[in-house]
Amino acid sequence: MKPLDQEESVTAAQLDVGVIEGMEPVYVERLHESGIYTVADLARQTPARVAHFAGLPSWDDSAAWIAEAKLILARSDSD
Questions:
Q1: CA torsion 19→23→28→29, rounded to 10°?
Q2: C-alpha angle 43/78/17, rounded to 5°?
Q3: What's this model's pTM, rounded to 2 decimal places?
Q4: How far apart are CA 2 and CA 51, in angstroms?
Q5: Do the Cβ atoms of 50 and 69 come closer than 8 Å?
């Protein structure tokens, strides 16, 4: 997971999807264009949907991104 360089006033749910490790800028842009902006938005998606919007050839990366988004949210709930 990348270090979070966000202001303290931003909640984990509001973090941009770009904080997800392995998500290159081109994928961040494609997800933004599809209406997926935040970690919370990403966590609500299916791997198939994210793979489609990001233009990925398989669901492997999208499933990992969603799992990381859910982990970020879970960690913030336990703090």
A1: 140
A2: 30
A3: 0.83
A4: 21
A5: no
Closest by CA to 19, choosing from 65, 52, 54, 59, is 65
Report the alpha-carbon distance of residue 44 to residue 46 in Å, rounded. Answer: 7
Return per-residue pLDDT of the chain as tens, 79 residues.
Answer: 444 454 456 788 899 999 999 999 999 999 999 999 999 999 999 999 999 999 999 999 999 999 999 999 998 877 6
3-state secondary structure the chain: CCCCCCCCCCCHHHCEHHHCCCCCHHHHHHHHHCCCCEHHHHHCCCHHHHHHHHCCCCCHHHHHHHHHHHHHHHHHHHC
- Reading the block at residue 65, the tokens are 């991104």
